[in-house]
Amino acid sequence: MTGYGHTLENFQHPAIQHAETLIMTRECLGIPMLALLQGLRNFEVFWRYGTFTLRETVDFVKHLMEGGREIGSSFTFGISREEFAEEIVEAMHQEVPGAKLATLEALDGCKMFPYVVSIPIDESSELNIFGEETDEKIGSVKILFNFKVQIMEIGTAKDSGYVFEEKMFCDLFSGY
Length: 176
Fold this sequence. Notes:
Blueprint lengths: L13 H4 L3 E4 L8 H7 L4 E4 L6 H12 L8 E6 L4 H12 L4 E4 L12 E5 L4 E8 L4 E2 L2 E2 L2 E9 L4 E2 L6 H8 L3
Parallel strand pairs: 1-2, 2-3
Antiparallel strand pairs: 3-9, 4-5, 4-10, 5-6, 6-9, 7-8
Helix pairs in contact: 2-3
Pfam family, one: DUF3557
InterPro entries: DUF3557 (IPR021942)
């Protein structure tokens, strides 16, 4: 999808809604991002270059916490703003009940987003938020990392032993 000339209604088309994987490669100018994301029913959504606010991101995570998505379903966004990582972790800590820092065994780690935030959804699933390395460039925009939000079985992420505190953010991001 190009994102140009599209409306929110375009994304409700059965061909888009029934696709298992949806890949968006450009901004969707003029479309409310939160409304768009909440309306997608695809198992995997890759948004190579999404422009959305911190508030929209937090509200979207809260929407996913309401449940109704399959284990394994995910949303991946290309992030080009270095500050996003620290801002989103702090926002999860402040605004999302049950959010904790965790680790995922299968995760290689991401220099720009060096942790996992895990949030229980129900007795069988949790929402895990983490970063993945990338060397993508879209036009003149360098994608610093992929921000991934994925529904997993409860207990997939292990407690890291870290607690949210301001000093932690300084330690994690020193040298960047």
